[in-house]
């Protein structure tokens, strides 16, 4: 397949790849998850385990993903198949995890798009919590499944899918790269303006004190270290298949490790910036309400759609803060959404040898329909909550743990190390091996701990049938379908020799 590999779409430049990779890494979790994780796990002291996790797990695994995609020139299923045929199911496991993530990620971007508009007039009124759950989501009582569609949710959700489809149909350079080159600088500028305004609010210093005051005693708690590794693991898009796919679009002579260092530190820098902006705003909220920051601090949906509207109601320039904050969520979400769906499109293109537009339609239209059926209804939020929890544990952590372990057992790390060193400015060696091995141990511990907690009690007290369907059932389904897809024949498969393609790089 060397002829088709040479015709594989590529990023026009290293800069285009870096912006796309940073766009994938910088997502909703950087803005609404990292600040609270840092605050809840030692404040300023959390920076130590966080940096250690970045250097010992995040960047080494980023190098590993880059090496797999760049050397074997394929989406995760094809790249793993070219390493060894028995590794192909791991690639499909990656792809299917991305299927689950993107069908619920789209609805959150839709919520953020709606709230960008609502922020102009403070449409949520004096009770943002009631507005979000009762008027906007029209959320049904309890965990259930229904086809009671909510127009305010369904419209933006389908809009997100249409926008994503149009970008991806344009291809790697004209679509993915151009979108990232436009949205990432815009996101950074918007967020920096929002942070600047937040820092001028009364009580901002109180919020920053809460975030950055170190609690050194927390460093003796293993849970803090797990939280640091978990944050790095999820926020950098490693072991998702995304970086394997993106690096397969790099030109043969590309500096993998140098690029990885830029992407890793850029992602972490944005997380720290997000922490400053979010906690400056929460400090204002606490001061205005006569409360401590601990009483108003939250993460995820609660931070974005309840706490921030409350801040916007009370703050000077509230409408501008809202426009910048929710607009940033939309742009961060879109660049990540593009990367998630691209993994699936690339796998379909490789397996079926389809051109870009048919593959994009084949992927996006069915997933948009599923997304609408599950999350455009009054019962969407509990389904989202369960699928997010289980796919992170059994679609990302479990798959990452097993495929990195498989590469070690199959003694493939020396080949990948040699490939990194042949094309890169920053060389890796024995320390890289040690860090990859240590990361496998950490992933195994995270998987064990999460499974133990999920088996000990029902997640968020959801009923058994609901968890069995959308949690455990979905998780088992990922593995079964991955195995079945790996058994299907490849269309027009022929021999592939990575050493022949990269011969000039290894001389």
Describe the structure.
With 507 residues, this protein is mainly α. It is 76% helix and 0% strand. It has 23 helices and no strands. It has helices at residues 2-6, 14-25, 28-32, 34-40, 47-72, 76-83, 88-118, 128-136, 151-169, 172-199, 204-212, 222-235, 242-247, 256-289, 293-296, 300-314, 318-352, 356-375, 380-409, 413-423, 430-456, 464-487, 498-501. α5 (47-72) crosses α21, α7 (88-118) packs antiparallel against α19 (380-409) and α19 runs antiparallel to α21 (430-456). The longest helix has 35 residues, at 318-352. It is globular, with a radius of gyration of 22 Å. The model is unreliable at 1-6 (pLDDT under 50).
What is the topological layout?
Blueprint: H1 2-6, H2 14-25, H3 28-32, H4 34-40, H5 47-72, H6 76-83, H7 88-118, H8 128-136, H9 151-169, H10 172-199, H11 204-212, H12 222-235, H13 242-247, H14 256-289, H15 293-296, H16 300-314, H17 318-352, H18 356-375, H19 380-409, H20 413-423, H21 430-456, H22 464-487, H23 498-501
Helix pairs in contact: 2-10, 2-14, 2-17, 4-14, 5-6, 5-12, 5-14, 5-20, 5-21, 6-7, 7-9, 7-17, 7-18, 7-19, 7-22, 9-10, 9-17, 9-18, 10-14, 10-17, 11-14, 14-16, 16-17, 17-18, 19-21, 19-22
Shape: globular
Structural class: mainly alpha
Q: Compute the number of helices.
A: 23
How many angstroms does the end-to-end distance come to?
23 Å
How much β-strand is present in the residues?
under 5%
Reading the helices and strands in chain order gives HHHHHHHHHHHHHHHHHHHHHHH
Helix content: over 70%
Mean pLDDT level:
94
What's the total count of β strands?
0
Rg, alpha carbons: 22 Å
Oligomer: single chain
Q: Biggest β-sheet, characterized? A: none
Uncertain ranges: 1-6
